[in-house]
Design brief:
There is one protein chain. By secondary structure, the protein is of the alpha/beta class. It is built from twelve helices and six strands. It has a three-stranded parallel sheet with strand order 1-2-3, covered by helices on one side. Strands 4-5-6 form a three-stranded antiparallel sheet, with helices on one face.
C-alpha cells in the first residue's frame, strides 16, 4: 500500500462519498493514529491533496509517544510531512474538553478531521442531552474540513484492515468517564435495540434537515435590524431571538431570559435592562443601544 500502488477500486467507492477539495489543494490533517484519521490520511492522499499531517500527543497514556511512529510508518513512504506536537493535559475534571482545547491550540485555523457519520450521530445525541436547539442539533457541517461525514466508522476500520495498516488502539475511547463513550457504547446500541434499525443514518439525516432550517432562519434574522425596537418587537419571537443573538454574540450569546428582557425594552415595557458582563441595553427614539457600564 505504502508504495502508492494500491488499486483505485479500493478507494473509489469511499471517495465518491467524501467532500474533499479539488486535487492539488494544500490541506492540514489531524491524525491521531486511530482508524478514522488513518483512513482520512489514505483517502486524502488518494484524492491527490497536498497533505501536511499533524499529530498531537496528549501524554494521557504511558505509551502515547509510540503513536507518532505508527503514523510515520504510513506518512514517510507516501512522502507526507508529519508534524508532531506534545502537550501536557494531566488528569482532572473536564479532561476531554481540556484535551480538545490543547489539541486545537496546536492546529492551524483550518484543519481537516476524520469525523464519520457515527461521530455525527453521537454529536446530535450529546447536544440533545445538553438542551441544544436547532443549531446544536445540526451538529457538524459537512464540507472540506469534515470530509468523512458520509462514511461509517466500520468502513474506516475495514479500509485500514484491508490495506494492513497498523492503527492506534486508544483505550480512552472506551473510558466511561466520557459522555461520548457512553453515548457510543450504551445509548446508541440501546436505541438500535429499541427501534430495530441503525439509528446513526437517521440522526445524521435529522442533523441535515435541522441545519438547512437553521441556515434559513439565520438568513432571515440577518435581515432584521436588532437595534430597530419597533421592528424587533413586531417580529416573531424566534426570529427576534436569533437576531439578538447574532448582535450580542460576543463574548457569548445571551440566554433566553436575557432575550426576553431585551424584548421588553424593545416593546417599551421598560427603558433599559442589564444583559450581563457589565452591559446594558437601552431604548431611545425607537432604537436599542448597547452600553458598557463603568
Amino acid at each position: 500500500m505504502t508504495d502508492g500502488a494500491t488499486p483505485p477500486f479500493v478507494f473509489e467507492p469511499l471517495l465518491a462519498r467524501c467532500t474533499f477539495p479539488t486535487r492539488g489543494t494544500a490541506v492540514s490533517l489531524a491524525i491521531s493514529g486511530g482508524p478514522d484519521s488513518m483512513a482520512l490520511l489514505l483517502l486524502a492522499h488518494a484524492a491527490g491533496l497536498k497533505i501536511t499531517a499533524i499529530h498531537v500527543d496528549h501524554q494521557l497514556r504511558p505509551d502515547s509517544s509510540n503513536d507518532a511512529d505508527i503514523i510515520r510508518a504510513i506518512t514517510e513512504p507516501l512522502g507526507i510531512p508529519l508534524v508532531v506536537h506534545t502537550v501536557h493535559v494531566g488528569n482532572g475534571p473536564n479532561l476531554e474538553a481540556r484535551a480538545r482545547t490543547a489539541r486545537y491550540a496546536m492546529f492551524p485555523t483550518e484543519i481537516m478531521t476524520g469525523h464519520t457519520e457515527d461521530d455525527q450521530a453521537e454529536t446530535v445525541l450529546i447536544n440533545l442531552l445538553r438542551g441544544a436547539g436547532a443549531q446544536g442539533l445540526s451538529a457538524m457541517r459537512p464540507g472540506h474540513t469534515r470530509p468523512l461525514l458520509r462514511i461509517r466508522r466500520d468502513e474506516t476500520r475495514s479500509l485500514c484492515s484491508s490495506l494492513n495498516i497498523t492503527i492506534v488502539d486508544d483505550l480512552t475511547n472506551t473510558d466511561t468517564r466520557f459522555l461520548r463513550n457512553r453515548v457510543r457504547h450504551e445509548l446508541l446500541p440501546l436505541m438500535s435495540d429499541l427501534s430495530q434499525r441503525d439509528p446513526a443514518p437517521l440522526l445524521a439525516r435529522t442533523a441535515d434537515v435541522l441545519r438547512a432550517d437553521n441556515d434559513l432562519l439565520d438568513e432571515l434574522a440577518r435581515a432584521l435590524d436588532p437595534t430597530d425596537a419597533k421592528a424587533l418587537a413586531a417580529a416573531p419571537a424566534p426570529l427576534a431571538h436569533r437576531a439578538l443573538r447574532q448582535w450580542l454574540a460576543d463574548p457569548y450569546p445571551p440566554d433566553l431570559a436575557t432575550l426576553e428582557r431585551i424584548l421588553a425594552v424593545a416593546r417599551g415595557d421598560v427603558l433599559a435592562c442589564d444583559i450581563g458582563e457589565n452591559r446594558q441595553i437601552r431604548r431611545s427614539k425607537q432604537r436599542l443601544t448597547l452600553h458598557i457600564l463603568g
